[in-house]
Amino acid sequence: MDEALIEAAQKFPLLEELEISHCSFSTEVLEAIGRLCPQLKCLRLNCRGYLCAPKCDETAIIIAKHIPGLRRLQLFGNLLSNDGLHAILDGCPLLESLDIRQCFNVRLEGSLRKTCLDRIKNLKLPSDPTDDYEFCTELRSYGLNLDYLSEGCAFDYESDFSEMHDSYFDDSFEYYDFEDQYLLL
User: What region holds the F-box/LRR-repeat protein 15/At3g58940/PEG3-like LRR domain (predicted)?
Assistant: First the structure.
């Protein structure tokens, strides 16, 4: 997949809009896209959202470093954290639209929240509704049995995601690996 994406980027140096959804690729692809398509203004990198997933800011940092001209960015279901979001805001000064729905490692509070609200004209937050999203929005677990989560933590699938985010995804959230199972403490 990496080679095909890089070849496509080489053939379209004037590309302004790119969507890569529900497939895996290396960060080298994003670096190459940034280098080969300097006029890229809109990037959509989408996957299904994860509950209880470890933070991973690698994609966000690559975007910030190699694709600074973005005006619209959609990272639906990404594992970025506040650090990754800070990198994007610092590295992409022209950003006007940001969709980070189902990016549950992001906690928009304090100055980060203010920066996003002041600077981003069209902002979709991790817990915002997904009615207009064209792909499956069913959440997946990251090595965690969701039935156990719903029984053990009183998790209600119909609950408001903002309440869930505040209740289950705070700084005291820890992961313990027991034969590929993760437990909430």
Answer: 49-105
CA–CA gap between residue 61 and residue 90 (Å, rounded): 10
Distance in angstroms (rounded) separating the CA atoms of residues 35 and 24: 20
CA–CA–CA angle 101, 51, 123 (5° rounding): 10
User: Could you tell me which of 21, 12, 59 has the C-alpha nearest to residue 39?
Assistant: 12
8-state DSSP, 98: E
Kindly report the backbone phi and psi dihedral angles of residue 92, in degrees, each rounded to the nearest multiple of 5, phi listed first.
-125, 75
Distance CA 23, CA 180 (A): 23
* pLDDT band at 168; cut points 50, 70, 90: very low
pLDDT in tens, 12-58: 999 999 998 877 788 899 999 999 999 999 999 987 655 556 788 99
User: What is d(CA 61, CA 87) in angstroms, rounded to the nearest whole number?
Assistant: 6
Q: How many CB atoms lie within 10 A of CB 52?
A: 20
For 131, phi then psi, to 5°, come to -55, -35
**CA angle (120, 126, 127) in 5-degree steps:** 120
Q: What is the pTM of this model?
A: 0.71
- Most confident by average pLDDT, 44-48, 86-90, 163-167: 86-90
Query: If you ran DSSP here, which 8-state letter would residue 121 be given?
Result: S
